[in-house]
Amino acid sequence: MLRIAVPNKGSLSGPAADMLHEAGYQQRRESKELRIVDPENEVEFFYLRPRDIAIYVSSGRLDIGITGRDLLIDSGAGAEVILPLGFARSTFRFAAKPGTVGAIEDLKGKTVATSYEGIVAGHLAEHGIEASVVHLDGAVETAIELGVAEVIADVVETGTSLRNAGLEVFGEPIMKSEAVVIRRVGAEAEDTAEPKVQQFLRRLQGVLVARTYVMMDYDCRVEQLEKAVALTPGLESPTVSPLHNEGWVAVRAMVPAKEAQRIMDDLYDIGARAILTTAIHACRL
After folding, report:
1. I want to staple 13 with a disulfide (CB 3.0 to 4.6 A). Which of 7, 42, 202, 213 is the partner?
2. Where in this chain does the record put each Histidine biosynthesis HisG C-terminal domain (predicted)?
3. Model pTM above 0.90
């Protein structure tokens, strides 16, 4: 069976389980379950701490895993990204008391508190900055107030927590992260599970496409068909079928979901009618 690591808690857990369910895989019913077997799909899921997943995958004990790009890099494990998943996006940045630090060059000789020591140490080394890095497991916002560090480095979403702690971000983002599928470096060339891995990736890619596109159907006059097709080119090309009423055709094409309303407006303006959109639940491209 294909052995897959899945986050057991945190911001990665729920969206990962939802995506796997949409891809047709059985998922656990209770949060206490640490392992389930999906015999129909020949997959075994292991629910692990997100921070540990890269270690298990790089060791070869598990074939692939879902974790955060930031956790993968911070671990220093011998695993690599094979598919970005687009959820749990975040930005990793430095923050300090207003007016105390303005750029990364100002970190020289200072102490930085973070839960991601590997990322921060690597980033400082890349810029030739000599600074101390203190590892904290959480609530790094209080590190400056308590005198543990002059600067913190943490995940920033809205920035509300930082502002409440009297801090502000500075400099360019250290990195941007999202959920990713990872695999041991070099596993592809020697892994007998390769066909199952590729099938797994195709299923997840199908979910990503299904979430990104909608199917659009509409009727239009033949003389307006070229303009309509230019608006809805589809992936290869749209499906065009003649209607019973002479001079009219029915068109079907996949369009980006975020542009669907604008495309409907444009189609209506050129005379298209009976314009419908429907959700796509699964696909293979």
Report:
1. 7
2. 210-281
3. no
